[in-house]
Amino acid sequence: MSEKQAGLNGAYYGPSIPPKRDSYQSVGRGGGPLGCCCSCIFGLVFKLIFTAIVFMGLAFFVFWLIVKPNRVKFHVTDATLTQFNFSSDSNLHYNLALNLTIRNPNKKLGIYYDRIEARANYEGQRFSTITLTPFYQGHKTTNVLNPLFTGQQLLVGSNLQSEYQKQTSAGVYEIEMKLYLRIRFKFGRIKTGKFKPRVECDLKVPLSTNGNSATIFETKRCKIDYFKAI
Predict the structure, then answer these.
(1) Which of 5, 58, 81, 215 has its CA 20 to 30 A from that of 128?
(2) What is the pTM of this model?
(3) What 8-state DSSP symbol labels residue 42?
C-alpha cells in the first residue's frame, strides 16, 4: 500500500497537449470571409436572373392568353407570265404579275407593314427586286397586293439552260418569290418593336400567250418565318 501511495505522490506524465490553433484563416481560401462573400453574390445574381426569366415567361403567357395571336396567312392567288425567255447573251427577259393576298386572322392585333421588299428568283438566282407600298392592316382583314416583275437580268449557271429547256417543254416555270418584311404589331394603343419575318412562295407559273394558257395557275400558300435573318 505504501508503495502505491508513493507512486501517486510522484510526477505524472500524461499525453502531450496539442498546441492551440490560430483562430484566423488565410484570406482567399475556401470558407474564408472573401469566399463566403463571393458565393453570396453569385447566389444573389443567379436568383435575380432566374426571377427575371420566370417573370418574363409569365408575362408572355398572360399576354398570349389575352391576345391569342395567330399566324398571318399569305397566298398567291393568281400569276400571269407573259414573257420568260433567254436571249443569246444569257439575259432573261421576263414579265410576271402576281396577286398576293395577306390575311390577318387576329381579333386584337393590327399590323404595320413598314417595308415590303419582294424578290423573284429562278433556279436559285435573283432576277428582280421591287418594293411595295407600306400599309396598316386592321383586325381580321384581308389585303391584296399586286407585285409586278418586268425587265431583263443576266443569269449564268451550269444547269440553268438545261432546266429552262425542260420547263419550257412542260410549259410551266418554277419561280420563287420571297418577301422581306419589316413589321410592327399593334395591341390597343401599344405598339411592339420591329420584326423582320421572311415569306417564301414556291410557284409553278404557266406561260401565257395573248392572255391564254393551257395550264391554270393553282393558288399557293406561302411559308412565313418570323425569326429568320435577312
Answers:
(1) 215
(2) 0.71
(3) H
